[in-house]
């Protein structure tokens, strides 16, 4: 069956196009952040304790996620949950309280910043008389709106369908409506759950085939890049850490960079020439986030392979965020799932962004802590002001091409075509023009540049 064209429309678009509704402004929404007093351990956490996020930080992030698709937030709240209810997660008193808020504020969507089972989602929709999205559903809605390339659209749709497979339950509006199709919030679906499951499975199989084609194409592009030995440097980090801003600053590209969670989704690659002439391919990737849905990571594996294949990974942190340590841990976990060891100082460079937002006292303290006993202390930068970017470029070039070396070469008159190359790929310290027409040039160049210079001179001498 043909894939539906509007599978990845946003919450606002789906609501606006439901039967019986008219086009209107932003969807009114309520955000609820459940805080469980007894932490529920997930399967992968048995031996890896996680840093605890403050309720305020979780609330701010949930609000940021909701605003990323322009929801009109009429109420946001943190709800302490002492005894999670299997039917609704929240206690009956809280559910009744939020139902009244939804009714008075004419809210159409309720965001619950916590994973919900299909039964919990259905029951909450009945009790609140509004559409309910859990954290996973909200992230998928954002990704659906942000996807621009064919690959990104396919990946988001595959994640949508895998998420929906277990949620083919009767919807809150009419008993004849059931969850089906490619979006969460669409109108009437098939009238039989078995038929829905079959349709979804057929679409999933088709999408996987299409993504496999995309993966093979990406592998071909990667193989072509490897024929021209340009090292790949990937920028990774928590969403809104400033990756796109840094990418734009280093490349001069015009990638969307806003103070918004998941401002960009599809990866971008650009060729960059470092100060001493070393060419690299710089890759900007999708931002990571805590509790990133497993099937979303799986769907985006083709994109994230750019990180796996990268020669160097820049782990960018928003050092001004109070939750920076927990965010770094989340990024490191996802990198570990991809087979990248964040503790490998030869492969990963930790960079502290937004240093300009710290006062002098906090800046001095953090830099002192960062240099305390580390083999490779983090590099402090501001992608906005440009502070520290020279040090970052130098560090990347050292990792890719080796330390700077001093050398002196004599260029014969027949080899003067190399002079321009020397100026572009090294720091020329001095030049002396000799009586025989040759030129003696002293310069500093990276180890790889020195090898290239010697190779070019050898070829000229033997030509």
TrEMBL record:
Primary location recorded for the protein, binned into one broad class: cytoplasm
Protein name (record): GTPase HflX
Functional description taken from the UniProt entry: GTPase that associates with the 50S ribosomal subunit and may have a role during protein synthesis or ribosome biogenesis.
Keywords: Cytoplasm, GTP-binding, Magnesium, Metal-binding, Nucleotide-binding
Matching PANTHER family: GTP-BINDING PROTEIN 6-RELATED (PTHR10229:SF0), GTP-BINDING PROTEIN HFLX (PTHR10229)
Subunit structure and binding partners: Monomer. Associates with the 50S ribosomal subunit.
Source organism of this protein record: Mesorhizobium waimense
GO MF term (any one): GTP binding
A GO-annotated cellular component: cytoplasm
Locations listed in the record: Cytoplasm
Cross-referenced SUPFAM superfamilies: P-loop containing nucleoside triphosphate hydrolases
Record field: compositional bias (Basic and acidic residues): 1-11
Domain Hflx-type G: 231-404
């Amino acid at each position: 069956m043909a894939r539906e064209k509007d599978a990845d429309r946003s919450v606002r678009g789906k609501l606006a196009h439901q039967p019986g509704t008219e086009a209107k402004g932003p969807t009114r929404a309520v955000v609820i952040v459940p805080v469980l007093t007894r932490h529920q351990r997930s399967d992968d956490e048995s031996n890896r304790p996680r840093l605890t996020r403050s309720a305020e930080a979780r609330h701010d992030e949930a609000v940021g996620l909701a605003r990323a698709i322009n929801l009109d937030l009429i109420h946001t709240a943190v709800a302490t949950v002492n005894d999670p209810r299997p039917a609704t997660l929240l206690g009956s008193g809280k559910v009744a309280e939020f139902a009244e808020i939804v009714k008075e504020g004419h809210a159409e969507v309720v965001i619950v910043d916590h994973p919900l089972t299909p039964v919990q989602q259905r029951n909450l929709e009945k009790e609140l008389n509004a559409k309910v999205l859990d954290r996973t559903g909200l992230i998928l809605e954002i990704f659906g709106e942000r996807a621009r390339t064919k690959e990104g659209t396919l990946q988001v749709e595959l994640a949508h369908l895998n998420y929906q497979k277990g949620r083919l339950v009767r919807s809150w509006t009419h008993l004849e409506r059931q969850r089906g199709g490619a979006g969460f919030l669409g109108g009437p679906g098939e009238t039989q759950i078995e038929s829905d499951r079959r349709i979804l499975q057929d679409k999933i199989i088709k999408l996987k085939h299409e993504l496999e084609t995309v993966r093979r194409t990406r592998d071909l592009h990667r193989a072509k890049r490897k024929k021209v030995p340009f090292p790949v440097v990937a920028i990774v980090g928590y969403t809104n850490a400033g990756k796109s801003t840094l990418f734009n600053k280093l490349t001069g590209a015009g990638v969307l960079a806003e103070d918004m969670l998941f401002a960009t989704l599809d990866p971008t690659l650009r060729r960059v020439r470092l100060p001493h002439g070393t060419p690299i391919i710089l890759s900007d990737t999708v931002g990571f986030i805590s509790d990133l849905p497993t099937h979303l990571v799986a769907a985006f594996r083709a994109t994230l392979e750019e990180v796996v294949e990268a020669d160097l990974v820049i782990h960018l942190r928003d050092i001004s965020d109070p939750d920076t340590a927990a965010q770094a841990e989340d990024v490191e976990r996802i990198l570990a799932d991809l087979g990248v060891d964040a503790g490998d100082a030869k492969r990963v460079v930790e960079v502290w962004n937004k240093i300009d937002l710290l006062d002098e006292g906090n800046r001095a303290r953090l830099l002192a802590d960062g240099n305390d006993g580390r083999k490779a202390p983090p590099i402090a930068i501001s992608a906005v002001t440009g502070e520290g970017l020279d040090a970052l470029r130098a560090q990347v070039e050292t990792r890719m091409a080796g330390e700077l070396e001093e050398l002196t070469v004599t260029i014969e008159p027949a080899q003067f075509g190399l002079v321009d190359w020397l100026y572009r790929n090294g720091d020329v310290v001095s030049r002396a023009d000799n009586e025989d027409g040759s030129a003696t040039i002293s310069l500093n160049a990276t180890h790889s540049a020195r090898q290239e210079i010697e190779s070019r001179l050898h070829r000229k001498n033997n030509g």
